[in-house]
Design a protein that fits this description.
alpha/beta, single chain, TIM Barrel, 38% helix, 15 strands, three-stranded antiparallel sheet, binds iron/sulfur cluster
Length: 385
C-alpha cells in the first residue's frame, strides 16, 4: 500500500543516501470496497508469486548496492504463511545486502496478528510494523468491510506492544459517510491509548474503480465537501500536535524524527529505490520503471526469464525538479530555494507567497504551513515552471 500512496517520482538529489527496497505482496483475503491498490483474493497464486519474486531478485542483485530500508507492503503481507515469509526473507538476504540498523517494515492486518507471527517477524529482523486499523468504530469497520472488529484491532495492538515492537504505526481513515468530528476524535483517542510512535490518517477517497467509487457515481454515497475535508484535516493535525506528534507529511504524524518513516522519506527526496512484485515502481538515475500490475503477467515474465517491467520513463531535469517541488511541499522538510525557483530565485515572488501564509522559511528551505498542506496539490503551481 505504502508505495502507491507515497511515491510519485525521484531523482539525483540524494546526497549519497542509500537506497530503499519495496516488496509488493499482492494478496488480500477480501477486497475492501475503497481500495485502489493492486491485490487479488486468489491466494493460490502465492507460490508462483514467490518463485517469480526470487527470479526478479536475481535480475537486480548487483544494481543497487546496500539497502537502508526494506518495506514489505501490499496487499496484505501478513496473509503469507510463516513458511512463505521465511522463504521471502531468505531470498532477500541471499540476493541483497542491508545496512546494520536498516529500517524493516511490514504492513500488518489486525486480523492476521498473532503472538507467534509477531515473534516470527521479530526473529527475521522486522523492526517496524504498520497496522491497518482504519477505525475503532464497529459500524465504520463494517462499512469499510474490514476483516477485523474494533476489539480485534485493540487485541492486535496490545500483542504488538507485548511482542516488544517499539516502532509501529496505526493507519486510520476519516471522512466516512455519517462520521462526525467527535466520532473521529474518539478513534484518535483510542489509537493514542496504545502509544503508537507513528500515525497515518487518510481521508477516504472514492476512486472510480472501487466499489465505493461506483456507489458514489450511482448517487448512493457522497464524498466530503472541500470544507468538511478541511475541518477533519485541521482537527486531526491540531489534536495530534497537541498530543506531541510532529505533522511531518500531509497524512503522517510521528512522535519524533526517529519515528518518521525512513523508507517513505526516500520516495519524497528522490533517493533511488527498487520495487519488486506486481505493480511495484522503481527509480534510479533519473529513470522510473514499473512492473506489470497483474500477478499472471508478472509470473509469466519471470517464467520466460525476462524482467516483468510494464513501462518506464526518463525524467528530464525539469520534470525531476517539479516532482521534488510537488513531493517536498507535502512534507515538513519542504524544498530548497533552487527546487522552488530553478536557477533564478525571485525575492518578490517569495515575499508574496510568504504573505499568503502558505509557506514559511526554515533553515533556508521553503516549508509549507498547515494552511499550505491544505492546498498541497496546488502549492507547486505558485512557483515558476
Ligand atoms: S487489506 Fe489493504 S490492500 Fe487489501 S483490499 Fe483492503 S485496503 Fe486494499
Amino acid at each position: 500500500m505504502a508505495q502507491e500512496t507515497a511515491a510519485t517520482g525521484k531523482s539525483a538529489h540524494t546526497g549519497g543516501e542509500k537506497p530503499g527496497l519495496y516488496i509488493h505482496v499482492p494478496f488480500c483475503k477480501t477486497k475492501c470496497p475503497y481500495c485502489d491498490f493492486y491485490s487479488i483474493t486468489d491466494l493460490s497464486a502465492q507460490g508462483a508469486w514467490l518463485h517469480a519474486l526470487q527470479v526478479e531478485i536475481d535480475f537486480y542483485k548487483h544494481d543497487f548496492g546496500t539497502f537502508e530500508t526494506l518495506y514489505i507492503g501490499g496487499g496484505t503481507p501478513t496473509v503469507l504463511s510463516e513458511r512463505d515469509l521465511d522463504n521471502l526473507f531468505r531470498a532477500l538476504h541471499a540476493g541483497f545486502s542491508f545496512c546494520a540498523g536498516a529500517e524493516i517494515t511490514v504492513e500488518a492486518n489486525p486480523d492476521d496478528i498473532t503472538k507467534d507471527k509477531l515473534v516470527f517477524l521479530r526473529s527475521r529482523g522486522v523492526n517496524r510494523l504498520s497496522v491497518g486499523v482504519q477505525s475503532f468504530d464497529e459500524n465504520e469497520l463494517r462499512f469499510l468491510e474490514r476483516r477485523h472488529t474494533a476489539a480485534g484491532a485493540e487485541k492486535a495492538l496490545s500483542l504488538v506492544r507485548e511482542a516488544g515492537f517499539t516502532n509501529f504505526g496505526i493507519d486510520l481513515m476519516y471522512g466516512l459517510p455519517g462520521q462526525t468530528g467527535e466520532g473521529w476524535l474518539a478513534t484518535l483517542r483510542k489509537a493514542l491509548t496504545f502509544e503508537p510512535p507513528h500515525l497515518s490518517c487518510y481521508e477516504l477517497t472514492l476512486e472510480e474503480t472501487t466499489a465505493l467509487g461506483k456507489m458514489k457515481m450511482a448517487g448512493q454515497i457522497a464524498p466530503l465537501t472541500e470544507d468538511e475535508g478541511e475541518k477533519f484535516f485541521l482537527r486531526t493535525s491540531r489534536f495530534l500536535q497537541h498530543h506531541g506528534f510532529i505533522h511531518y507529511e500531509i497524512s503522517n504524524f510521528a512522535r519524533s524524527d526517529d519515528y518518521c518513516s525512513r523508507h517513505n522519506r526516500k520516495y519524497w527526496r528522490h533517493v533511488p529505490y527498487l520495487g519488486l512484485g506486481p505493480g511495484a515502481h522503481s527509480f534510479q538515475g533519473g529513470i522510473r520503471w514499473w512492473n506489470y500490475r497483474s500477478v499472471d503477467r508478472y509470473c509469466g515474465a519471470a517464467k520466460s526469464g525476462v524482467k516483468p517491467v510494464g513501462g518506464s520513463e526518463i525524467l528530464s531535469s525539469e520534470q525531476l525538479r517539479f516532482e521534488r517541488l510537488f513531493l517536498g511541499l507535502r512534507t515538513h522538510h519542504g524544498v530548497t530555494m533552487e527546487d522552488a525557483f530553478g536557477t533564478s530565485p525571485s525575492e518578490p515572488l517569495l515575499s508574496r507567497i510568504r504573505a499568503s501564509g502558505l509557506i514559511t522559511m526554515r533553515h533556508n528551505r521553503i516549508v509549507p504551513t498547515l494552511k499550505g498542506f491544505l492546498i498541497a496539490d496546488r502549492l507547486p503551481l505558485m512557483f515558476p515552471d
